[in-house]
Design goal:
Layout lengths: L15 E4 L11 E7 L4 H17 L4 E7 L7 H15 L6 E4 L4 H7 L9 E5 L5 E5 L4 H10 L6 H25 L1
Parallel strand pairs: 2-3, 3-4
Antiparallel strand pairs: 1-4, 2-5, 5-6
């Protein structure tokens, strides 16, 4: 199944919740930002701090942010979980949203791979009816999120153009990676 603009959001399958209450399903009427990140990713660190601000700004508008550490590097899940917990405590003491940890690769298989997303950080926005409204960089959320909340984004030409551009850029990244591997 391809995950893209207007498709039904895949499920959240996370065994470990490091911060906040577990999210078992998307609730109708709420907008979710699902953020894929890792501690070793410098742009992710900036994005996570920005998401703290977005959560504060939009919490009364039904926005919920879910950070997913799905690419953490460690020999074991326990080692990765301990590292993440210490990192979150040190770097994001004012964290105000959920953080899930997936060491199994299941979330990448459900979200990143079928959306043709290559790198992190990657934000997925799930709109009020459970459909993907946006996939892209968290830096784009300031512009896109108000439009999603008003209901004017997902089916707009602007959204379709942004998604086409994202897919083109990701295809170019995959091709460059493939060429470097040979």
């Amino acid at each position: 199944m391809v995950v893209g603009l207007e498709s039904q959001a895949p499920p959240i399958k996370v065994e470990n919740w490091l911060r906040g209450q577990p999210l078992t399903s998307f609730q109708p009427g709420k907008v979710y930002i699902v953020e894929f990140w890792a501690t070793w990713c410098a742009p992710c660190v900036a994005a996570l701090s920005h998401l703290v601000q977005l959560q504060e700004k939009y919490k009364d508008s039904g926005v919920e942010i879910v950070g997913l550490a799905a690419r953490e590097r460690a020999r074991t899940a326990d080692e990765a979980r301990s590292k993440l917990d210490a990192w979150l405590t040190e770097k994001l003491p004012n964290l105000n949203y959920r953080i899930g940890f997936d060491y199994t690769g299941e979330m990448n298989k459900l979200w990143m791979d079928p959306s043709f997303s290559v790198g992190i950080p990657t934000s997925f926005v799930v709109d009020r009816d459970g459909h993907i409204a946006f996939i892209g960089f968290p830096t784009q959320l300031d512009d896109v999120l108000p439009k999603i909340l008003s209901g004017s984004w997902r089916t707009s030409d602007e959204a379709k153009a942004a998604d086409t551009e994202r897919l083109k850029a990701n295809a170019e990244k995959r091709e460059m990676t493939r060429k470097r591997a040979h």
